[in-house]
Specification:
Elements: H1 2-47, E1 56-60, H2 68-76, H3 89-97, E2 102-110, E3 114-121, E4 124-128, E5 132-135, E6 140-141, E7 153-156, H4 162-177, E8 183-188, E9 194-198, E10 203-207, H5 211-225, E11 232-236, E12 244-247, H6 250-259
Parallel strand pairs: 1-3, 4-7, 7-8, 10-11
Antiparallel strand pairs: 2-3, 4-5, 5-6, 8-9, 9-10, 11-12
Protein name: Cell division protein FtsQ
Subcellular location: Cell inner membrane; Membrane
Subunit structure: Part of a complex composed of FtsB, FtsL and FtsQ.
Length: about 260
């Protein structure tokens, strides 16, 4: 009898604790549900196409040829520009990278509606095959030649040889500058024969071999020509020794003087 009373007492005394734990658990569950609902509502609001649209572009970088309008046009080619939360940065970056003048693009989003675009442009070193441009890393790109600022050497060479030809131009142009001249055009044909046209119009036929020796021979000849160098049309250096000199005709000289 005593044991029965004690057990009943324990059941009676534990009943409020059970109720207390049940109330606490219910309250915790309600809190979790409320937090989940708030998170879901917030995320749904942020991903709503009518909320937080990306509407501002901030363009940064030392730029001469790329404008904000160019960036806007590249974005306009995307099928869809999402919200601050939904838009993929990689898609924006790929779009901007397709602008011909862009060498490198870095894009990030700024809360709540801004796209920050930092661009690095190709630095023009040469005009490539008459219809493209070459940058200082030997990369060919399709920038608009008509807007290029300053004078640049014209390179006419087979595809795939851009870095090689750029290095040849850099090496030899520095030597020509020592006599007050610059390379205006540099040509490498399919047979790997080189031709140089200087800024005073003289054409140098160099062939495929011994470029260093043949150019050194030109410098010796050029000094000997003196003032007569202005009358030279071409110099063929494709010989073991010496060179063949072609002269501008009297008629052509007269026409040049008339044009001046």
């Amino acid at each position: 009898m005593i044991n029965s009373v004690l057990a009943e007492g324990r059941r009676i005394s534990s009943s409020p604790l059970v109720k207390q734990h049940a109330v606490g658990g219910s309250f915790f569950l309600v809190v979790l549900l409320l937090i989940g609902f708030l998170l879901y509502s917030t995320i749904s609001w942020m991903w709503d196409e009518q909320r937080l649209p990306l509407s501002k572009i901030v363009l940064q970088g030392d730029l001469q040829y790329v404008s904000t309008r160019d960036v806007q046009r590249s974005f306009a080619r995307l099928e869809h520009i999402g919200t601050f939360m939904s838009q993929d940065i990689d898609a924006l970056q790929s779009s901007v990278q397709s602008i011909p003048w862009v060498a490198h693009a870095s894009i990030r989003k700024q809360w709540p509606d801004t796209i920050k675009v930092f661009l690095t442009e190709h630095q023009v070193q040469a005009i490539w095959n008459g219809n493209a441009l070459l940058d200082d890393d030997g990369i060919v790109f399709d920038g608009d030649i008509g807007v290029v600022k300053g004078e640049h050497v014209k390179l006419y060479v087979p595809d795939g040889s851009a870095p090689e030809v750029l290095n040849v131009w850099r090496e030899y142009n520095a030597q020509f500058q020592n006599i007050g001249r610059n390379i205006s055009s540099l040509l490498l044909n399919e047979r790997r024969a080189w031709q140089i046209i200087l800024d005073n119009g003289i054409r140098l036929e160099l062939g495929k071999e011994s470029l260093d020796e043949r150019i050194a021979r030109f410098f010796l000849l050029y000094k000997q020509l003196g003032n007569d160098a202005d009358k030279v049309s071409y110099i063929d250096l494709r010989y073991d020794t010496g060179a063949a000199v072609g002269w501008i005709s009297e008629q052509e000289l007269a026409q040049e003087n008339k044009d001046d």
